[in-house]
Amino acid sequence: MKKITIALLLCTVLCAAVFAQTAADFNVTFTKDEKGVVITGYTGTATAVKIPATIQGMPVREIGEKAFWGRNIISVVISEGVTIIRKSAFTGFSRDNRDRIQISDKLVQVTLPSTLRIIEDNAFSNNPTLKSIVIPEGVTEIGNEAFNECYALASVTLPKSLAKLGASAFFRTAITSITLHPNLTKIVRDTFAYTKLTSIVIPEGVTEIINEDVSLAGGAFRDCVALTSVTLPSTIQKIGRDVFRNCSSLTTVNIPASVEAIDIADDAFSNCGKLSLASQSAIKKRKEAWVVAKEAAREAAKQTAEAERAAAREAERVAREKEQADREAERENARKAQQTAREEQEAAEKAQRTAILNTRDNLFNKAKELSEKIPGYGQKKPSQKVIYDLAKEYYALVSEVEKFKEQYPQIGNYDFYFSDTIFSRLNNIRNQFQLDWFSKKELAAFDKEFPGLVKR
Predict the structure, then answer these.
(1) Largest CA distance in the chain
(2) DSSP E strands: which ranges in 210-332?
(3) Does 252 have pLDDT greater than 90?
(4) How far apart are CA 224 and CA 247, in angstroms?
(5) How far is CA 441 from CA 389, 446, 447, in A?
(6) In whole angstroms, what separates CA 274 from the centre of its chain?
(7) Residues 122, 209: one domain?
């Protein structure tokens, strides 16, 4: 019992010594939202590092870029709450004060939190003594070269949540087997190149295994010389150049019968000399079917484009004809409107002419009637009342004639002699008023009301 107690005490002392760093050993800054902190550097001397959950009362949310650059730590435990490990945070690659390349050979153990979501580019690259890593569920992205050239890394556990796996993520590692999950849709350049994989099952959901940057050489599984078996999913559509180049032990490529065609680059399986005849036939069959399908698609696209061009030409023709018809209709409508306006104007002028001539005739008739009312020479002398009434009627007719001429000065256009004729008749009527109708007293009274009507 005494020995057990001493052992426990010794273990406690050693653990305390191992994690001897304090919050003061970390340089920090705020996250963008200022709700947490980012560790930007480590100044402690302990090689077994446990990153605290809080520093200065703030939760640790991120491990910053190059935070542990050149610190030669042996192990690291990242506390719960951290969501992002930034670029080159734990890379074993660094330079000394003479700009000479330094590679750490000390990091052997990494413990990641369940809160982690993103591991950025080169986060753990160039750590040749790191042997295993468990990526927790919840991580959705592993960046380019995240574990590049971790030569001893033989055991890797990837989460089902992983949706993006960067180029060269596990380039030149010691992985012999790996389980990929359906959340992945694409596997890119050099992801597992130069590893010790013996077989690989590409999960359902992956559509492409490609080198996305054609300017760079590299295939996702190139130079995996121990790789003997590849199983492709029913969702696969494209296998790019160099993907399985120099996989010299590869014998079997399993392709689901439901996959009729795959876009396979000419050099996708170059230098795979041990491929079985069945696998070669299956690859060739799918590749040829893809070429046929591609040609058929190109021809269909060509026909569709031609049909679209023909439709466009027809639409242009219809539009031109419609535009021409619209212009013609517009011209016809304008012509009809002008014709209608002319006819309306002519009708108005005709109606006005008729009204003027009717009024003229009415004035002539009134003059005739008035002339006939006045007794002629030798006839019975009218009474003074009749004479006065006739005089009033005469002046009313004169006034009506003057107003008519003022209202319709164009009367001369219809009856050139109107003025001469009507005033001649009025003058004759005036001459019909006889001097002998009046006594001297009556004439004086009459002249006062109707001056100059009776001629002397």
Answers:
(1) 180
(2) 229-231, 238-239, 252-254, 263-264
(3) yes
(4) 5
(5) 18, 9, 10
(6) 51
(7) no
In terms of Cβ atoms closer than 10 Å to its own Cβ (0-12, 13-18, 19+), residue 246 is buried
Per residue in 160-217, pLDDT (tens digit) is 999 999 999 999 999 999 999 999 999 999 999 999 999 999 999 999 998 766 555 6
**Cα–Cα distance measured from residue 186 to residue 176, given in angstroms and rounded to the nearest whole number:** 21
Domain identity same for 7 and 118: yes
Contact 116, 134 (CB under 8 A): no
Asked if 66 contacts 91 with a C-beta cutoff of 8 angstroms, the reply is yes
Do 213 and 238 form a contact (C-beta atoms < 8 A)? no
Residues 7 and 139 in one domain: yes
Tell me the two tokens of residue 455: 């001629």
**What is d(CA 94, CA 92) in angstroms, rounded to the nearest whole number?**
6
Taking CA atoms, 439 is separated from 154, 434, 444, in Å, by 156, 11, 9
Q: How large is the angle between the packed helices 384-407 and 418-431, nearest 10 degrees?
A: 170
Same domain, residue pair 166 and 200:
no
The CATH number linked to 122 is 3.80.10.10
Q: Are 209 and 220 in contact (CB under 8 A)?
A: yes
Host domain of residue 195: 185-275
118 and 151, same domain (yes or no): yes
- Within-domain flag for 329: no
With helix as H, strand as E and coil as C, how does 211-238 read? Answer: CCCCCCCCCCCCCCCCCCEEECCCCCCE
Q: Answer yes or no: do 223 and 166 share one domain.
A: no
DSSP 347-366: HHHHHHHHHHHHHHHHHHHH
- Residues 405-425 have a mean pLDDT of 84
